[in-house]
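Sample 3 of the quickstart, ligand NAP:
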Amino acid sequence: MMALRFPKHLLRFFHEFVTPEFCLRQKRFQSGVGQPPKEQTLELDTVMVTGATRGIGLEFVRQLVGLPKPPRIVFATYRNENTLMGLNEIKIRSESTKLEFLRLDVTIQSEITQAAEKVVEVAGFVGLNLLINNAGIARNRMLMDLSPYFMEEHFKTNAVGPVMLVKELLPMLQNAVMNKDWNNPGKFPGLNASKAAVLNISAWSGSLQRAMDPPIFEPEIAYRISKAALNMSMRCLSGLLKSHGILMVQMNPGYVKTSLGRRLVPPHEGLNPIEVSESVSSMLKTLAQCKESQHGGFIERNGAPIPY
Ligand SMILES: NC(=O)c1ccc[n+]([C@@H]2O[C@H](COP(=O)([O-])OP(=O)(O)OC[C@H]3O[C@@H](n4cnc5c(N)ncnc54)[C@H](OP(=O)(O)O)[C@@H]3O)[C@@H](O)[C@H]2O)c1
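Result:
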């Protein structure tokens, strides 16, 4: 009978390299142990961005449409048709994403209801994976020039509007959880931005603990209390959202080169604003990594926690 001959160079390979340590390394490699954690990417079907006509909101739409796996539908909200230029430019170039423009002033309840109805009509059982509560105002006034109307306008826009949107869109966020789990069993365990999430664009200046940090800014009083109210209201909703499998975070975009950013910090403060593209790309990157441990949290765009 002919002896089975194993090629010598292969024998040498087994002898020298296929040691028990090698096998263990292979096993660890295959199971992912000891490897740097895989970076999550966003896989969204549907997103809604409020205040999408300019600044951070417009950039969110631009970058969402440009994701490696872009959403199928982005609902971008506006108040005035004359401000749709930037969104129209994105729409023309968008190949995989359908851009739906929704008229929405977040201080008008009937417009919130109508916008939510449109989301139901267009997205249906797919639901809404991500609501970005971005629309906001920031105007400065010294104490002696404050009026109740001025204070209420900030409160209604920056705190009440986002809460009412969560209320109206909750069934669609729930649909998104069910739809994602049904179509991708086990792929998005726990709370995950690709499944269902609310991202609230807050501001570090809404932090009560950091209220005494410089710059202490008397004219920002209306803005700062409205962002503190946003944080508190979302904190109050975090238990409910978690019970429905919906992730929620408050994020500070940084000091960003937008008309609002320029109004917030006058040039003489010596702070360097960042580009809108940089702010939004890091927020999206951080959001993709957010898990249960960040739920209900108040974080910087790079994920660092901010004290409430
Ligand atoms: N820029 C910064 O440095 C900075 C820092 C911290 C936090 N933030 C937060 O980031 C978010 C976006 O700010 P931004 O810098 O991009 O400001 P922006 O350039 O002034 O844009 C604000 C957006 O919000 C919309 N908006 C304002 N009031 C609204 C209302 N009642 N209903 C619906 N939409 C409304 C505006 O729509 P119109 O075009 O119709 O006016 C616009 O699209 C805000 O929540 C802001 O507080 C910004």
